[in-house]
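User: Hey, quick favor. My workstation is busy. Could you predict this chain's structure for me?
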Amino acid sequence: MSTDAATHYRTCPLCEATCGLAITTRGRTVEAIRGDEADVFSHGYICPKGPALKDLDADPDRLRAPQIRRGDTWTTVGWDEAFAEIDRRLSPILATHGRNAVGVYLGNPSVHNTALSLYSRALLRVLGSRSVFSASTVDQMPKQVAAGLMFGTGLSVPVPDVDRTDYLLILGADPLVSNGSLMTAPDMKGRLRAIRARGGTVVVIDPRRSKTAEEATRHHFIRPGTDALLLLAIVQTLFSEDRVRLGAAAPHVTGVERVREVAAPFTPERVASHCGIPADAVRQLARELAAATSAAVYGRIGTCTQDFGTLASWLVDVVNTLTGNLDRPGGAMFPKAAAGQTNSRGAGGRGKGIRLGRHVSRVRGLPEVFGELPVAALPEEIETAGDGQIRALITVAGNPVLSTPGGARLARALAQLECMVSFDIYRNETTRHAHVILPGLSALEQSHYDVAFTQLAIRNFARYSPPVFPPPPGHPRDWESVLRVTAIVAGQGPGADPAPLDDLVATQQVEAACGASDSPIQGRDPAEILAALAPRRGPERLLDLMLRTGPYGDAFGKHPDGLTLAVLEANPHGVDLGPLAPRLPEVLRTPSGKIELAPEAIVADVARAAERVGTPAPAFVLVGRRQLRSNNSWMHNVRSLMSGKPRCTMLVHPDDAARLSLAADGRARVRSRVGTVDIPVELTDAIMPGVVSIPHGWGHDADGAQLGVAAAQPGVNTNLLADHDRLDPLSGTSVLNGIPVAIEPVA
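Assistant: No problem, here it is.
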């Protein structure tokens, strides 16, 4: 490797903003990381996580070779020995107990890894198990369910056109800290300030005066879990004051009268005391949204991980539609991604829609959603004997012991598994229970393309990043490791060459593209297409296929100036594909060919919300909070991000602290129905009285984990307080916000 200084351009994979980085290296050493000023999307913006890639790459705790656990002893082994151990443990379980006895958990970081996101699909397809779980049901699943029922696919999520909007209403989100979520948008501080600078308005609804709220025109506190009631009152006002204007979307919308009917009882006066927002303020929001030249409503984690997650997520886009702001510049619009987007294939305008509940979990009978079961059901599916009991688990870049409700119970359940295999770069609170850990490459040793997040971006663009460094000698690429486990599942043994399986994956995708009536290469010879993709292999081959058959692609010669992976390789700062543009009706994939404004499954849940109105509120409820220097649980071992004062504290309003005899910088004991934690207290009037806030993803004090930096500031696991029985019924998403708690000082 050359020792000369070199600059590499790549995407930061550490959050949804997907910022472009300029990385200066000398040999195998990273000398500096800065924002890429020439990047077509992020224009040089960078947050603290980007430069931390250097520390993440060099972290001595990052695993660089497989590990096998025998009893409590960990041994570093070679790759062949690791796969042989997986075969020894996993194959008998498959042979004796069947496919459903093997569970899979897909963690949030897997979406930020191109190889894992593309090749985990092959593993799941070959495994054929119904026991599939992911971080989605402690995150965004309600929005996907609502989008699927309204527009026809789970990622048909309208995003705010923030660079052109005149009015932005934000509920349960802190995009200045999250850098946008289900809204890929670098530099949200600059974008919000630009809205105000051009005379626009930003309103934040949140039980905490967040960093985003500090930049807003106005901020309203709201009682956690009542966002759906607030939005229903806004809808009721729009109808009662004759302010509904569908705009250009009108010919494509059905169900308006049904929405009028179900919203009618929810007057601002009826919900005001329950939400904590005065009736006049609710009406003002409705009137401003209706009167604005352009407006968008955006809701995120606080509106998803609550009792009415799907209902609130649906109502966000009901309001966008009723105010004429769906699918228009400055409103809530549908991105058109370059690759992998199901709602941009073919002519569109109609489709199969989505089906939910095709099977249910074995113990509680919880319905499947988009092919997976609620992760809250994972412990019981391991613990409970009987046909289909999970006896083996494969985790892909995740830490559910910290990320899901009842982590202590899950940890006990994991300890009884006969086989656990983890694809992970760390031995963390979850993977410490694995029998085999297969470490992935450093983020700087593998290529990257954001298949998912470009589908949620506030501007259409495409950017490919080649590896900065080559992989270490003998270290398989992540996709090769996944395919070797896939080969074991397929009965090919531990020594199978992944290349034939990779060829099979590519061939199946090419044949599907050549055979699909809505494909630009329909009717072409698959052998011709495969030859055109050669000599690429792995993710690059699949990505080139997706790009070339996507909405901007060259269709393998049909559109000579179209997009290909070669074009992206020649443009390391990315390719700008333009601002968001109206996409109705072609974006729709519903059976009716319409926007289903009143899906019956969601409308039926309004009655449950109505029952909450007038019920006494708990004395205290718990909410989480985002932090700029972390992403869930997986950034806490990076020294540069953990500097400064401890951040795992409980925010408490001073008036509440006085009533509870809590001292500033003291400690409090927090109890829920299912758990207890002791945590440092931080007093602030930025939190609503009656609400306390603990950040998500901490609790790094488990025996057997190997996270030296994180263990020095372990914090507490707030999900020990989350009730695994409390779920949003439509999406199976755990309730992580609005948890009733009791609080007392710790002596």
